[in-house]
Design goal:
- The chain has 277 residues and is α/β, with parallel strands linked by helices.
- The chain has a single domain, classed as TIM Barrel (Alpha-Beta Barrel), CATH 3.20.20.
- Helices cover 38% and strands 18% of the residues.
- The chain contains ten helices and twelve strands.
- The strands form three sheets. It has an eight-stranded parallel beta sheet.
- β4, α2 and β5 form a beta-alpha-beta unit.
- One of its GO terms (molecular function) is oxidoreductase activity.
- Pfam families: Aldo_ket_red.
- It comes from Solicola gregarius.
Amino acid sequence: MTTIDIAGSRVGRVGFGTMQLTGPRALGEPSDPGEMRRVLRTAVESGVRLIDTSGYYGPGVANRLVAEALRPYATDLLIATKIGAVRTPDGGFVAAVEPAALRAAVHDNLRTLRVERLQLVHVRNMPDAPIPYEETVGVVADLRAEGLIDSIGVSNVSVELLDQARGITEIASVENEFHLGDTSGRAVLDHATELGIPFLAFRPLGNGGVLAPDSRVAKAAATAGVAPAALALAWALEQSPGLAVIPGTSSRAHLRDNLAADAVVLDGRVRAELAGE
């Protein structure tokens, strides 16, 4: 598996996101918690060393499943979490960036993941935040100074917000949406690559939207003889050597397709099909 350095850890470029391990719309318990734990164990047994999670998945459910499935954690496993938002009953997100809310989120992640320090915390930018983003990052930097966090990343940011955060503290990683169906984050990806900051692509399959049976991905995958998910993720990995993908799934079969991306090599004909040429 090709690897990348993130927050002092050498991990494979195909990670695992935990949101889909929870109930519908990342709210509540999954129908089969035991199977979700098996999916997590299979991911790690297959070489995954980057787990992306959050206390607001469930809420609390994804972190609990991670702890139940993977503790004691392997010394080379990097668990990244996110703070700065809470879920609404309809499955949406609202900002939770006041200092007390951020402190509570950090302690909640510590408790549910059952660790003494968080390895990597992504500070999510929320459009409805009542305070400037740099102030939010500053609060999280203070929490790191207290010894609760090892490294700080940013999430859902623009180039401007990334640079604002860099002016406050060292930024270990950027976590933004990026996939074949939405490349609006290209400027942030390019900027992070130039700076040598790893870029974690969340929703790298567009919540499955890029894999529709009549999609260009499905057609190109048939040409290449690989699973559509593997091809879509391989395309993303090709966009920058500093990019990792964190697809989520509740299926061990889909997990195998995702992990196969690391071995897929795109040729000119397949690239042209993916580009719609």
